[in-house]
Amino acid sequence: MKKTDTTLPKNIDEYLAPLPEDVQQVLEKLRKTILQVAPNAEEVISYGMPAFKYHGMLVYFASFKKHCSFFPGSAILDIMEEELKPYKVSKGTLQFTVEKPLPVALVKKIVKLRMK
Question: Measured between alpha carbons, how far is 116 from 114 in angstroms, rounded to an integer?
Fold first, then answer.
């Protein structure tokens, strides 16, 4: 019988709750921006991270000790390579900090491209 890990969050609100207030605010803004572009996207937890499904997996985000990450996939990051030069990009991941969050316009553009 497989043991279930009850420490994993069941939804995005549970994921955000234990995080520091400033991190919560930045990730909540990211969440709302994603939903503005994809209002029919389903919020889920996948691989222990907040994610959005829209005809398959759309995007993920997560908080780490020294940064946050937005996961739109490597194909989108390759397409937007020039525009993303000011950010740390790694294997389908766009890293940012609370002090320098991702601009709303950039997040909207990425989500729109993913929806295509």
Answer: 5
Print burial letters for 28-52: b (CB count within 10 Å at least 16), e (below 16).
eebbebbeebbeebeebbeeebbbb
Residues 60-111: tens digit of each pLDDT: 999 999 999 999 999 999 999 999 999 999 989 999 999 999 999 999 999 9
**pTM of this structure:** 0.91
Give the SS3 label for residue 19.
coil
Residue 3 buriedness (CB in 10 A; 0-12 / 13-18 / 19+):
exposed
Assess if CATH 3.90.1150.200 describes domain 12-115. yes
